[in-house]
Specification:
- It is built from 3 helices and 11 strands, in the order H-E-E-E-E-E-E-H-E-E-E-E-H-E.
- The chain is α/β, with parallel strands linked by helices.
- The strands form 2 sheets. The chain has a 9-stranded mixed sheet with strand order 1-4-3-2-11-6-7-8-10, covered by helices on one side. A two-stranded parallel sheet has the order 5-9.
- It is globular, with a radius of gyration of 22 Å.
Length: 193
């Protein structure tokens, strides 16, 4: 047999196999809930220099910059890109993580429904899962032992990271909230500026 003939046949058969196998993945989801598709490179998680005076384990959210900093200590922090609340809808000042939840359920507040009437369809709540607006995990922010109704949570709309779009909560990609959630115990200090 001619080796060139076998190589061409192998090449043709290999190409046919590749094309056919591409058709079989059509039933797979287009995007994972942990996909960072659409997130600008500047908002991807990274370790950065940090000159603030907060204790290691503190969370600082800079709503103007659209970054959340998890203070590591020794002049370093992990920086996450975030989406923040629309103008006038953000929590400012100090809080603590009063509770944590994985794949949390979500119910819009009365004030959210008043501002955005289309949310009334969710007044009964949305169970946790891939289609829930709180994403894979949530850190519930408290002041004086009371829930502020503001959250640091994941999102099923990662392309909005870097924007001011929420009803006041701080959104991270699902991948980033899982990373932050694992490192943040209840009682952790949060400062939103």
């Amino acid at each position: 047999m001619d080796n060139d003939h076998i190589t061409r046949r192998g090449l043709v058969l290999g190409c046919v196999a590749l094309m056919a196998s591409g058709c079989t993945t059509a039933s797979w989801p287009v995007a994972s809930p942990f996909s960072s598709n659409g997130v600008s490179y500047r908002y991807r998680r990274r370790e950065v220099a940090y000159a603030g005076g907060e204790a290691p384990g503190s969370i600082i959210v800079n709503t103007y910059e659209r970054y959340l900093y998890y203070v590591e200590g020794e002049g370093r922090a992990t920086r996450y890109g975030v989406a923040v609340g629309e103008e006038g809808l953000t929590l400012k000042g100090s809080a603590v993580v009063g509770r944590k939840a994985e794949w949390p359920s979500w119910t819009p507040t009365a004030s959210m429904i008043q501002r955005k009437p289309h949310l009334a369809q969710y007044a009964g709540g949305v169970p946790g899962g891939e289609n829930n607006p709180l994403g894979a995990a949530a850190l519930y922010l408290y002041r004086g032992g009371q829930d502020t109704y503001f959250r640091i949570h994941g999102t099923n709309e990662p392309w909005l990271i870097g924007s001011a779009v929420s009803n006041g909560c701080i959104r991270l990609t699902n991948e980033d909230i899982v990373h932050l959630y694992a490192r943040t115990p209840v009682g952790s200090s949060v400062l939103v500026i």
